[in-house]
Amino acid sequence: MMFLRILYFLLIGWWFGLLAGAVGYLLCASFIGAPLGVMIFNRYPQILTLRPIKGISVRDMSGRTMTVPHQEIHLLVRILYFLVIGWWLGALALKIGWLLCVTILGMPLGLLILNRLPLLMTLKQNY
């Protein structure tokens, strides 16, 4: 399976990831397309490397699974954040993450940055 993911990245993932990042960024720039843009960024590591999407599991010291309560940030705050900071921070993170993923040694850090892309652009938390 790992060989297939490497082959996919070398033949398709690097250019398709660049295209998906540009489309997702443009969609996030419009109010109507923002949900679709965030969805693309949530799946960006899978688009780039075929990495399976995993859920977040939190365990306490005894090994029991716990759910972490979270509070969603108000939509107006997220819109203001995107207009002031998110659009350029997202573009910068997308470029840096993609460039790191093109190198073999930088790929883990690039995927970490790209996993955080929706949070950086729109403060949308993935739970």
Please provide a written account of the structure.
The protein is mostly helical and 127 residues long. 67% of the residues lie in helices and 3% in strands. It has one domain (2-53, 73-122). It has helices at residues 2-28, 34-42, 44-49, 75-102, 107-115, 117-122, and strands at 58-59, 65-66. A two-stranded antiparallel sheet has the order 1-2. The model has no long low-confidence stretch (mean pLDDT 79).
Name the shape in a single word. Answer: globular
Roughly how much helix do the residues carry, as a percent range?
55-70%
Instruction: Calculate Rg over CA atoms.
Output: 16 Å
The tally of beta strands, per DSSP, is 2
Mean pLDDT over all positions: 79
How are helices and strands ordered from N to C?
HHHEEHHH
Spatial separation of the terminal alpha carbons:
27 Å
* Largest sheet composition: 2 strands, antiparallel
Q: Give unreliable regions as ranges.
A: none
Largest beta sheet: what is the strand line-up?
Answer: 1-2
Structural class based on helices, strands and sheet pairing: mainly alpha
Tally of domains: 1
Number of helices: 6
Q: Which percent band covers the strand fraction?
A: under 5%
Question: Which features does this protein show?
Answer:
127 residues, mainly alpha, two-stranded antiparallel ribbon, 6 helices, 3% strand, globular
Write the layout of secondary structure elements.
Elements: H1 2-28, H2 34-42, H3 44-49, E1 58-59, E2 65-66, H4 75-102, H5 107-115, H6 117-122
Antiparallel strand pairs: 1-2
Helix pairs in contact: 1-2, 1-4, 4-5
